[in-house]
Amino acid sequence: GPSVLWFRRDLRLGDNPALAHAAEDGRDVLALFVLDDHLLGPSGAARRDVLFRSLTALDDQLGGRLMVVKGDPVAAVPAVAKAVGADAVHVSEDYGPYGRRRDDAVAEKVDLVRTGSPYAVSPGRIVKDDGEGFKVFTPFYRRWQDHGWRGPADTSASSASWIDPDDVSGGRKRVTIPTENTHADVEAGEKAALSSWADFRDDRASGYDDERDRPDKDSTSRMSVHLKYGTIHPRTMLADLASLKNDGSEAYRRELCFRDFYADILFRRPDSARENYDKRFDAIELDSGPHADELFQAWCDGKTGFPIVDAGMRQLVSENWMHNRVRMIVASFLVKDLHLPWWRGARFFLQHLMDGDIASNQHGWQWTAGTGTDASPYFRVFNPTTQGEKFDPNGDYVRRWVPELRGVDGKAVHALKNDRPEEYPEPIVDHKHEREEALRRFGALKS
Ligand code: FAD
């Protein structure tokens, strides 16, 4: 009988092992996507926009044969499978907390076949000698490289004979793919993913290790949004990187491993999507109340009076993306200068980021807050001024995003004194003072 290929966050036809499996023995395949309010609601308009345009691109590749339905997948997927008379429903495995619960519930009603995942090495596979998972990145990275990953799977639109959804009667009503009116100018879909990857690989990958920390330069790949929806698989990228063999490709491979690492951490500790990974921090003193809310609002609006922080927050809200170095700076500021809980900032990020991803976001936040996996001890407090001077050395990034400061030349833009324009806010806190306060709270926790 036929099979169903249920797409979730692997919205591509190339390098898709679940597609190969679904089409085995020449079976007819129905391509399905379920619009699930549980995921769409908290996504934010920019992320929904990319999703919808990725779906439209997929539907085009399939000659209009992507069946899109609405509802709770636990009811909708079995209903569609029954309507086409499918023996099995094929997916690429989801390792997030919600995805796992949903898939287990679907698997009680249909034969759910999970092949591959959005990661080079699926969560749970990389273990220490004693069989436990890693809590520290560097040894995970070593193991990950030793473990290795498969080469890209050879699949395409012609790997299957696709069932026309209009020929399916009963089950669920097919809906048109929604649209979202955002200004996002990022191209979506598999073709766009492959071509922006090729541009980066050919032009910028070799300088990536030297330039990646510079928000003023267009030096990173911006592939996060494509990886989020799986319009490209990291296997495809890793295979290319292996043949480049330069310091840039080495550094890039390490970043892709970070993505696998955080997915592994979240898989082992689903509670860490909401709670401190390091439980000792449950006792730390955090601020709340009207004044804390005002500070939070200033942070959201990019009006803290700290130029690099404000530039980052305005890039986030306007472009729905932020440079990694600046994500760390604004996150550190929220936690250590404003003494607010990391999850408040994480939630705001997820509402705005086009690449918003529960594993990378929550653990990027926890890492910066010092409540997560290793490396950034709580007592290491970023100084927004020196961070700005170091990573945006000419001040170009700040001037791009903070128009009030366009009249200030060079790196003076990071350490405003008498040249602080009237229309630009005064610093909402005193960094030196708040740094001491953060250390005091940390000290209280230890004793
Ligand atoms: P590149 O520098 O070109 O990196 C290539 C790829 O490697 C990225 O696309 C990404 O998939 C992966 N990668 C790079 N750095 C990291 C990292 N630190 N952790 C995990 N994966 C990484 N990334 C997300 O994809 N979604 C998020 O919601 C997210 N939230 C973050 C929140 C905070 C507070 C911090 C500090 C980091 C967050 N990151 C997140 C990680 C990182 O900032 C972005 O992946 C990166 O900026 C995306 O831009 P790029 O594709 O140009 O990155």
Automatic annotation (TrEMBL):
Residues 149-190 are annotated as: Disordered. Its cofactor is FAD. Its EC number is 4.1.99.3. It comes from the Bacteria. Residues 1-127 form the Photolyase/cryptochrome alpha/beta domain. InterPro entries: Crypto/Photolyase_FAD-like_sf, Crypto/Photolyase_N_sf, Cryptochr/Photolyase_FAD-bd, Cryptochrome/DNA_photolyase_1, DNA_photolyase_1_CS_C, DNA_photolyase_N, Rossmann-like_a/b/a_fold. The keyword Lyase applies. GO terms for molecular function: deoxyribodipyrimidine photo-lyase activity. Keywords: Chromophore, FAD, Flavoprotein, Lyase. PANTHER family: CRYPTOCHROME (PTHR11455), CRYPTOCHROME CIRCADIAN CLOCK 5 ISOFORM X1 (PTHR11455:SF9). Belongs to the DNA photolyase family. This is Deoxyribodipyrimidine photo-lyase. It comes from Rhodococcoides corynebacterioides.
